[in-house]
Amino acid sequence: MKLTNLGKVLYPVPGVTKGDVIAYYAAIAPVLLPHLAGRPVTLVRFPDGVEGKSFFEKHANRYRPDWVKTIRMSAGKESVIDFVEVADTATLLWTANLAAIELHPSLSRAPDLDRPTALVFDLDPGPPATAVECCAVAILIKELLGQLGVECWAKTSGSKGLQLYAPMNVHVTYDDTKAFSQAVAALLEHRHPELVVSKQKKTLRPGKVLIDWSQNDRHKTTVAVYSMRARELPTISTPVTWDEVRGCAESGDPLALRFDKDMVLARVEEHGDLFAPLLTLQQELPVLG
Amino acid sequence: MAARSIWNGTLTFGTIAIPIKLFSATDSKTISFKEVRASDGARISHKRLGAQSGDEVEFKELDKAYDTGKGVVVLTKEEIAAADGSRPKLIEIESFVKGEEIDPVFYDKAYHLGANKGGDHAYRVLLEALERSGRVGIGRFVLRSREQLVALRPIQGALGLQTMRFADELVAPGDLDFPELTKKPGEKEVAMAGKLVEMLAGEWDPAAYEDTYRDAVRQLIKAKAAGEEIEPAQEKEATEGDLMAALQASLEAASKTSPSPAKARATPKRPPTKKPTGPKKSAAKAKAAAEDGD
């Protein structure tokens, strides 16, 4: 494989080049790859950098090297999509070389592409709400799930929000996880109407946090843990501890949980993979009623 | 609607033959969409691809395969055409039955018949005779290479032809195992239901019913063309309240039964957070898939 245009600047403000992006993915590969293996991955490519045009690439690029593996997923009645499977470092560097800054895996893992391995809540703040309010809502969700015996883990979206994942890794359907997560969102909106909304509108509600439950869907993807984000700065979707989430909620500092690629590599050195439980922990979805 | 006939031929019964032409009696108003790519709106074209080779296959290269369950039989277009025989362009009416004996479930697509040159008089006589007798002609004809069972009957003041389903194409309710059909309801309840039906009795007025879905889609297109944003409908909106109530009940039950988390975890052991454990998860997944059996 030949890496190309390594000097091309993809993030203009800090002058991060494609070579830097590839180097980050090479360094993060040991903790990132287990979260991508077996999953159809949608690439979000930014050939002209984060300020240029981008496109979502679901179909594995037809000019891919023959060692790039794919996962076939049905899409509608008669069509299928061959997604890239990013299970090894070489493939990860190949996608990085395509300027696929963001990686968005499915919640399903082959061979069972109809079932999610985790439940996800995507918390999105409507300005002036920030990550601080997201952290407050994340704690409410954690406590509620905890009462039902379900543990969850948090990561930053790498943008403004926070995402909570509850590993399942057992028999559970998207219908189940979607209904359950919607109920959680609705109940928290009912209890905390000043802070939470659960219904997606075209514009976010000012000062409130949207608990987006709709990503618990076979056809939706959420940005991968450790994926770079195509924002102004090379921020990363970073797993965080619950102490850090509480700290952010209390400090009122919306930037407390903003991590760029170098900070994330240092964190992995220190903590290992905070998201490792997502890979193996088996939890039952509580039966409602 | 185009007023061109779609078939010309002869209607026969006994010794009488009437030259006729066939028009569609219905006009589908379904809104048709063109497919585009979501990301850039580019138009989509469909190609036939060989399932294995991935090569494009042209229409003229196609044959038809039928899976008998024990193997696949491939028929060429010529062979299928031969199955039609060389039927003359005839609608042959074999008998006239009482219209009310035909359950509407048998009726399929409707056509209007018009008289072709020299058939006007016989056409009018036949129409009049059918209207007076209340009888419906049953016959066969071949349309688009398929033999059709048809009913000849007056439709809106003209001769009409309606294709019919064959008896073996109908699904009997008995085959569906409806347990509610096995018990006889009480007389009182039936009388009560009968009263309700009477209260809602009305005249059949087809114009009173509109395709509200089609209207909604048209509205949507109009709004979007005018540059308005469309809010996607929320899924399962109606059941949201129930779900929330169910969750609340679960939480209450959980807090009553024990001070600590109520539900035992399926596997209480937590993996170490230091290192990702790659192979394990795929084993767990494989197990799940095996149990699922799909």
Helical fraction of chain B: 25-40%
Strand content of chain B: 15-25%
Specify the oligomeric state.
Answer: heterodimer
Q: Identify low-pLDDT runs of chain A.
A: none
Please name the CATH architecture of the largest domain in chain A. Answer: 2-Layer Sandwich
The whole-angstrom Rg of chain B is: 31 Å
Q: Report the helical percentage of chain A.
A: 25-40%
Keywords:
heterodimer; A: 289 residues; alpha+beta; Alpha-Beta Plaits; six-stranded mixed sheet; five-stranded antiparallel sheet; 15 strands; 23% strand; B: 294 residues; Ku70, Chain: A, Domain 2; seven-stranded mixed barrel; two-stranded antiparallel sheet; 6 helices; 9 strands; extended; disordered C terminus
Detailed description of the structure:
- Chain A has 289 residues and is an alpha+beta fold.
- Chain A folds into two domains: 9-111, no CATH class; 114-280, Alpha-Beta Plaits, CATH 3.30.70.
- Chain A contains seven helices and 15 strands.
- In chain A, the strands form four sheets. A six-stranded mixed sheet of chain A has the order 13-14-10-12-11-15. In chain A, strands 3, 4, 5, 6 and 7 form a five-stranded antiparallel sheet that branches.
- The longest helix of chain A is centred in the N-terminal third of the chain and has 19 residues, at 18-36.
- By secondary structure, chain B is an alpha+beta fold.
- Chain B has a seven-stranded mixed β-barrel. A two-stranded antiparallel sheet of chain B has the order 3-4.
- The relative contact order of chain B is 0.10.
- Chains A and B meet through helix 1, strand 9, helix 3, helix 4 and helix 7 of A and helix 5 and helix 6 of B.
Give a short synopsis of this structure.
The complex is a heterodimer of chains A (289) and B (294). Chain A has helices at residues 18-36, 89-97, 131-147, 174-191, 242-251, 261-271, 277-280; strands spanning 9-11, 16-17, 40-45, 55-57, 70-75, 79-85, 100-105, 108-109, 112-116, 118-125, 153-156, 162-167, 196-197, 209-212, 239-240. Chain A is of the alpha+beta class and 289 residues long.
